[in-house]
Design a protein that fits this description.
It is a multi-pass membrane protein. This protein has 18 helices and no strands. By secondary structure, it is mainly α. The N terminus is likely disordered.
Length: 469
């Protein structure tokens, strides 16, 4: 591996020292809340909700309360470490500090694989949304189109990327708010029920509440937590707060807004159309709107959802491309992945990410009906395994800064262990569902491959040292 460039190391060290001193903070607490909300809301919710409802029935509302609390605990743990020990590699660096280089390597590559699976699930969701108008066109055709568009945007450079993502974050939030207002208008009689095909929809549509039993709710949790997958971005961004003591305020606001939007929009979707008519092949919100005889309403909403999901897909591609660069800079990936062109785009890293995406598109060609559920399950498991690593690292690293801390996670150590227990409960629920078991198997295989990769890297490094001596 090529040694780190001394100038780059100096810049990183300077930035880290500034973060530790609380300088360069440009975010208010409400800015941080918006970043968290925008990062979390994506196709994992717009389409993945259909999987959750199909698996759990109306009881999925409890599942989203569970998911909100779990993700909040992870955010607080990551924020605590980030504020007191800001690191360029974020949770990957904390895992390395807590448990050694193996766990740093595993955490980074698990995040890259999870990001790749998330990106693939977003592209699959985009293709499913587009099939709303072109039902006979195969998923892989749309997948290729959206992939090329996403790669093209990344190749333009990152100068306006943050501004574009902020704009799409507002679109995502506005979309759900508009749906909630529409649903409330229907329930309050402001929009005639006669316009709906299901004009008799009432509280009976969510009774019995535990239609698929407790086991159905348990099995749905992996899909639910996947909907909160972007929460780590908010934890990392906490270093940019002007006032570090505002972390709790930002986290509370993020949790309340997400839970209010998620729970109310799902509840209203099940009030506008019977939950049994909701399936994984269409957004439940579009399904609900399709039941109303209002011209183009469902198509307009579908276009907005596609825009929101596309932004999440591009964000995932941008993220995993730069994660690979970070891995290479720390010696956990070949040094060639650090190279950037004149626009600052890491072409080698982007090429590998695109190759992984192409492989998953090929899978969707052979498994067009099950691929989204497989991807969501696998991505969800890989993602929340990193959540376990975040919470475990916080428990281990806390002794280094506990006595001089200005911000500490409340309820420690109970809340940290509670978060781990909730994640283990979620993963174990995946064993109850056939398609989820396949996704779990894929995740286990990925973790095994990453572990083997560390062994190869270690042997190579040892061989290099022996050769030099």
């Amino acid at each position: 591996m090529k040694p780190h460039h001394p100038v780059k190391q100096h810049v990183k060290h300077t930035q880290q020292q500034k973060m530790k001193k609380g300088k360069d903070g440009a975010l208010n607490w409400w800015n941080l809340s918006l970043i968290g909300i925008g990062s979390v809301i994506g196709a994992g919710f717009f389409l993945g909700t259909g999987l959750s409802i199909h698996t759990a029935g109306p009881a999925v509302l409890i599942g989203y309360l569970f998911g909100g609390i779990t993700s909040y605990l992870v955010f607080m743990a990551l924020s605590e470490m980030t504020v007191h020990d800001p690191q360029p590699g974020s949770f990957r660096t904390y895992a390395k500090k807590a448990f050694g280089p193996l766990f740093g390597f595993m955490s980074g590559w698990m995040y890259w694989v999870a990001g790749l699976l998330i990106m693939s699930s977003e592209i699959t969701a985009l293709s499913i949304f587009t099939q709303f108008w072109f039902p006979h066109v195969p998923l892989w055709v749309f997948s290729i189109i959206y992939s090329l568009l996403g790669i093209g945007i990344i190749l333009l450079g990152a100068s306006n990327f943050g501004r574009i993502e902020s704009m799409f974050g507002v679109i995502k939030l506005s979309t759900l708010v508009i749906f909630i207002l529409f649903g409330l208008a229907v329930l309050l009689g402001l929009i005639p029920k006669s316009l709906s095909i299901h004009s008799a929809a009432s509280t009976a549509s969510i009774i019995p509440f535990f239609a698929n039993g407790w086991l159905g709710l348990w099995a749905s949790l992996i899909f639910v937590l996947f909907s909160f997958g972007g929460i780590a971005v908010m934890g990392v961004a906490a270093t940019e707060l002007k006032n570090k003591s505002d972390i709790t305020k930002a986290g509370n606001m993020m949790l309340l807004v997400l839970l209010a939007i998620y729970v109310s929009s799902i509840f209203l979707a099940m009030k506008l159309v019977n939950w049994k008519d909701i399936n994984e092949s269409e957004s439940p919100f579009v399904t609900a709107l399709t039941s109303f005889r209002i011209p183009y309403l469902d198509s307009i909403f579908n276009i907005i959802i596609i825009s929101a999901a596309f932004s999440t897909m591009v964000g995932a591609l941008f993220s995993i491309t730069n994660v690979l660069v970070s891995l290479a800079e720390d010696g956990d990936a070949p040094s060639k992945f650090t190279a950037r062109n004149q626009k600052g785009v890491p072409l080698a890293s982007l090429l590998l990410s695109a190759a992984g995406l192409a492989a998953l598109i090929l899978v969707s060609y052979f498994l067009p009906h099950q691929v989204y559920e497989y991807l969501v399950t696998s991505a969800g498991v890989m993602l929340i395994l990193n959540w376990v690593m975040i919470l475990s690292s916080q428990i281990k690293n806390r002794t280094h800064y506990e006595n001089k801390a200005s911000f500490l996670m409340f309820g420690y150590p109970f809340t940290s262990y509670l978060g781990i227990a909730m994640i283990v409960l979620t993963i174990s629920g995946g064993l109850l569902h056939k398609n989820q078991r396949i996704g779990l198997l894929i995740s286990v295989m990925m973790v095994a491959i990453i572990f083997a990769g560390y062994g190869v890297k270690h042997l190579y490094s040892s061989h290099q040292k022996t050769s030099r001596s």
